[in-house]
Design goal:
The complex is a heterodimer of chains A (about 260) and B (about 260).
Chain A (H helix, E strand, L loop, with lengths): L4 E11 L3 E12 L4 E5 L6 H8 L7 E6 L2 E2 L4 H4 L3 E4 L11 H11 L4 H14 L16 H13 L5 E5 L7 H18 L2 E6 L2 H7 L2 E6 L2 E6 L1 H8 L4 H9 L3 H7 L1
Chain B lengths: L2 H21 L1 H21 L5 H34 L2 H6 L4 H31 L8 H22 L1 H5 L4 H4 L1 H10 L14 H6 L1 H14 L4 H36 L7
Chain lengths: ~260, ~260
């Protein structure tokens, strides 16, 4: 089977009041079972890249393929292989977690019983109480909603997971539970994961390789320890400062 | 994609939409009350002109209500997904767009028929009109068949909320308003200026209204109404694929311009 992700010269520009270059000649490849992290400030192009790989956005130039299937021309072959978690837990908030997940399950051809079992199994690993499963999502905290979003992405058993800042805005405990679950899934399911994050520590701990993205361009890519060695820095925040000239803490504060 | 996956996919939308109706049941009662009051007010315009005129107007109100429900449900299903941000998840799921849209349309037709039947029952009781001579089976069949052609128009209207979350759903009223003007909902199309009348002849609502009035007022049978039923089926066969094509083009445009996202 071909590479889980292969991007060649991806470019995307949005024209609003001004031209905004979201991706500028991005090329990279992800190997099977790899967790590839992308770190960068808000508006650096992370979500645009995830949307292109999710078949939701058409690039202006270049190509992107998932397991050898072009995301524009062969989107119907890409979709069964992927799933995604976005920074905001997008759900029908008026209905329960179960009703939302049953809907998602049917879209992926899963039966209700099977879906419920898988979901409850995932949610219990994330520390989500079963009795909250039947409450409207609008009554659940942001952290709990995000756990349901993670269950939605994992219960379809995708081969490639696109995690777009899955832990942003979570309380420390929820963040740890989600990170532990991702780590466990990596080893047991042999998943390939593309993870975008604001958390340098998360990238360092979870990812096999990390890319730093600024203004739609990858400025450096490598294994976390290799990057630390290459730039002779103690952590990725310092590496970020070295390659971009910008203080990561300041960028986080601004966002 | 096999048939089982198509069925699961379509059921997903029907199940989800009815779950949302159940969740906001109180509001459903408010909207039903609005439809009933509207039909009663229109029926009362003809109260002094006899039972036939009341029924004539009630059929108009019923079809108008049915059409509004279909348009509302189809465009709302897209608008709601845009608001909640779930449309990205629906669009990236491994289901055919035809399955997606037909699932929503099937829900809209089922829900529209249930609500229109309720309105008819309430209004008939209110006016104390006997509909013993009416052919209710034919009335029901016409309503369902007309739903197919209205669904095609609804799919075209659903493009508006796809492209604009804030105003798109509201803008679909323009489709309803044009049909109201040209189709003889509350008057015969002969009162329209001659230059507008050609539009009446291509509106499926014109034939729906005629057939439903014939079934309700004259008790016309299915045999008599067959040419209209076939015509409405034919219009549906043309408008549904056309609606799908228009929606597909709009989806491509939205994916090119990045209009599917709610945030991020």
């Amino acid at each position: 089977m071909k590479e889980p992700i292969k991007c060649v010269g991806l470019k995307k520009t949005f024209v609003k009041k001004d031209k905004v270059v979201a991706l500028n000649n991005v090329s990279f490849t992800i190997e099977k079972n790899e967790v590839f992290g992308i770190v960068g400030p808000n508006g650096s192009g992370k979500s645009t890249l995830i949307r292109i790989l999710s078949t939701l956005l058409i690039p202006d130039e270049g190509s992107a393929s998932v397991f050898g299937h072009d995301v524009v021309r062969e989107y119907s072959k890409v979709r069964p292989l992927i799933n995604r978690v976005s920074v905001d837990a997008a759900f029908f908030k008026g209905i329960s977690a179960w009703e939302n997940l049953r809907y998602a399950a049917r879209l992926y051809g899963l039966g209700g019983k099977e879906a419920k079992q898988r979901t409850l199994d995932i949610l219990s690993q994330l520390g989500f109480s079963e009795k909250r499963f039947y409450e409207p999502l609008e009554d659940l905290s942001r952290g709990m909603q995000q756990k349901v979003a993670i269950a939605r992405a994992f219960f379809t058993s995708p081969m490639l997971l696109l995690l777009d800042e899955p832990t942003t805005g979570l309380d420390p405990r929820s963040k740890m539970e989600v990170q532990n679950f991702i780590r466990k899934s990596m080893s047991s399911n042999g998943l390939t994961i593309l993870l975008t994050t604001h958390d340098m520590n998360e990238a360092e701990v979870l990812c096999h390789r990390v890319a730093i993205i600024i203004k739609g361009r990858f400025v450096t890519v490598g294994k976390p320890n290799e990057l630390l060695e290459k730039y002779k820095k103690p952590n990725l925040e310092q590496v970020f400062l070295e390659v971009t000239g910008k203080d990561w803490k300041e960028i986080e504060y601004e966002s | 994609m096999n048939l089982k996956a198509h069925a699961y996919g379509s059921i997903a939308f029907i199940e989800r939409n009815f779950a949302l109706i159940k969740r906001y049941l109180g509001w459903e009662l408010v909207f039903l009350t609005y439809n009933v009051v509207n039909a009663l007010a229109i029926g009362l315009i003809g109260a002094r002109m006899g039972k036939e005129m009341v029924l004539y107007l009630i059929v108009g109100a019923m079809v108008w209500g049915f059409l509004s429900i279909l348009f509302h449900e189809i465009s709302e299903s897209i608008a709601w997904e845009r608001w909640e941000g779930t449309i990205e998840y629906t669009f990236m799921a491994p289901i055919n767009r035809v399955t997606h849209l037909l699932g929503n349309c099937l829900h809209a037709v089922t829900y529209g028929v249930i609500r229109s039947s309720l309105i008819l029952i309430i209004v008939v009781f209110f006016f104390g009109i006997s509909i013993k001579g009416a052919n209710l089976t034919a009335l029901f069949i016409i309503l369902v068949v007309s739903g197919l052609s209205f669904v095609g128009l609804g799919l075209m209207a659903a493009v508006l909320p796809l492209l604009s979350t804030e105003k798109g759903a509201y803008a679909t009223h323009i489709f309803e308003a044009v049909l109201l003007l040209i189709s003889g909902v509350y008057y015969e199309i002969e009162v329209l200026p001659i230059w507008i009348r050609p539009l009446s002849y291509i509106s499926p609502a014109t034939y729906t209204l005629r057939a439903m009035r014939a079934a309700l007022l004259d008790g016309a049978g299915l045999g008599e109404l067959l040419p209209t039923i076939l015509l409405l089926l034919g219009v549906g066969m043309v408008l549904i694929p056309l609606g799908m094509i228009v929606f597909g083009k709009a989806e491509f445009y939205a994916k090119k311009k990045g209009k599917l996202k709610r945030s991020g």
